[in-house]
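2024-03-11 09:14:02 DEBUG pipeline.ingest accepted 1 chain
2024-03-11 09:14:02 DEBUG pipeline.ingest length=747
2024-03-11 09:14:03 DEBUG pipeline.predict start
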Amino acid sequence: MTTTTPSRGRRRAPSRMERAAGKAAALQKPRVILALLLLLALICVMLLDGYLRAEVGGDQRVRTGASSSDVPDDVLDGGPIVTFRGGQATTVSVPDKTIALTFDDGPNPTWTPQVLAILEKYDVPATFFLVGSMVSRYPGIAADMVEQGHEVGIHTFTHVDLSYQSDARVRREMEQTELALAGAAGITTTLFRAPYSSETDAIDNYSWPVYKKLGQDGYTSVFVDTDSDDWKRPGASKIVQWATPKKNKGASVLFHDAGGERSQTIKALPRYIEKMRAKGYTFTTISGVMEQQQRQQAAGGQAPAGVPGAAGGGARLQAAHREATGAILYEGKALVAAVTVAEWAVPTLSVGLMVVGVAVMGRFGMMLVLARRHYRLRNRRRFGWGPTVTRPVSVIVPAYNEKECIANTLNSLAQSTHPIEIIVVDDGSTDGTAEIAESLGMPNVRVIRQANAGKPAALNNGVRSAGYDIVVMMDGDTVFEPDTVRQLVQPFADPQVGAVAGNAKVGNRTTVIGAWQHIEYVMGFNLDRRMYDLLRCMPTIPGAIGAFRREAVLQVGGMSEDTLAEDTDITIAMHRAGWRVVYQEHARAWTEAPGSLKQLWSQRYRWSYGTMQALWKHRKSLTDKGPSGRFGRVGMPLVVLFQIVTPVFAPLIDVFTAYSMIFIDFKAALLAWLAVLGVQLVCAAYAFRLDREKYRYLLMMPLQQLAYRQMMYLVLIHSCVTALTGGRLRWQKLKRTGEVGTPAGAG
């Protein structure tokens, strides 16, 4: 065994990548926080959208038949407008031949503008009782109502029966609707109509405390004298008939401009206005009714305390509306802005989910079809490489602080059935890695020491020092089977083959993280490589096990330090140089999965960010011509779609499943999620069958989908943020335990 030692006494100047690493390290924590904030923002947007659309809480109860023994008789028998002045309930009736036209449940983007157009045509004022969630979704319509001189009142935020709700929920329903009105139209209101309310004689012992509390807060509760029952859709003629008061009496009349299909209401409304005017009726607002009563009482010297005296349209509106100022105005605008974002984001994400779903299912379909074809072709020996490769090869082992693993690695190589020389390139280890390698006394092992310069430099040093024309590269924590090298180099019988990817396996799969990565390696990486092999656009030779023609490595300039994914970088470079890159599934290597979530994050962050760097570096491959341009035409789009775009958006499947379970249909959403999981299980089971793995590890797959995929999403977001902000990272060394020994022990 020989040892090469560099001159001592001089400290190596930091490399360009290491100098940048110090600066980049300070930015990593903010980038992680930004990734988490993006996920939190997505969750908040979807919760807000669900709250607006599904009336969160799912409370659809409507109370009927309760006693009204606690309600004062003068309220039950009084007019439709109930105020609480001086702590006493007072009712106001609509004068004879007067119609206070009211609408509930809006605004609606289809029906409300048509109602407003009819009212404008006939110069009729109305009072609209608005649902706060609808106001926040369609603020422009609410603003148009106020601008056209109509009154608006509160119809709660989520249209629930308040008699079932707590005081806190009632207060929240009112405050949120006030915020929505402030943000949409710049006003607040003192008018209120409870959902599912009708005439005052329907007030019961459960709802009466709600009205009293709201009255003490300054709200005027508005009921109806005459209900058009237009929601029943009986036909325009019936709606007009039912909305007409008896014996020329005045009435608070109820129509609906939302809450369902309202074409009959739109048809009936002009007829109704013309009919009532022909009978001598006038139209006014709720505030107009209160002012008219006030004038009558004032004329008789009986004006009730606290009722503002006013006349005319402008004063009438002032009685119900208040200009929103200060905090409520800005909070209201923030609410409307947030809802606008949710209204835009959720449908967009829904479309994205459909695209992702199609891409994911398409990928599974491609992997199954092409992997099966790959397996059958290999078994039929139609992938004949040529004469058996028997000449010796060089195995390069870059090592940095691998004292726990290096002995296992070298001992596994010592059992190789193929003639090899072993070159251990110690990259400035401080834990005695080189000494351990030397102490084993293996005659075919050569240890080269170099100052710490990173993995690419170590590999290049090994390539330059290699004595044979085929070089096998592996990690210092990896264990080969005896037949691995022989299997790995057979494709080089084909002179067009420049590199061969081996089959990396997780050795420490007894841990949760190890089992997760085992599933990923078998299903994701190896099925992918079978697919890419058939398509002749293999994107990555794994660092744990890969073989190269030495001349091909030197032709493309060796292992580059430009990216963190030097394996992906050189693989793409091989394609662009015209070499063929293939997959040899029978060449197995056993590697150690990270032992903690922190180490897993570091590893996957380096992989994903390095892949992005490599793709960006070789972006001009998209325009390469001829056979060398195949990767750019086929491989580059597939890698971008399947390794970056789809994984970033794949968590939408889980997010939308949770969204649907909470706000739409729990059973249907759960079945859909299970169906997707079932498809993945089928693919994983087939991959395990091809690799002859034990199926018991698939029991971990549901948990992997719930936890592991979300972590990979954050890693990819973190990588995207780093790429967009121009950050650079150095090659990171993970902590190893050396528990992966022989392949038998790993299985």
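2024-03-11 09:14:41 DEBUG pipeline.report The longest strand covers residues 580-591.
2024-03-11 09:14:41 DEBUG pipeline.predict end
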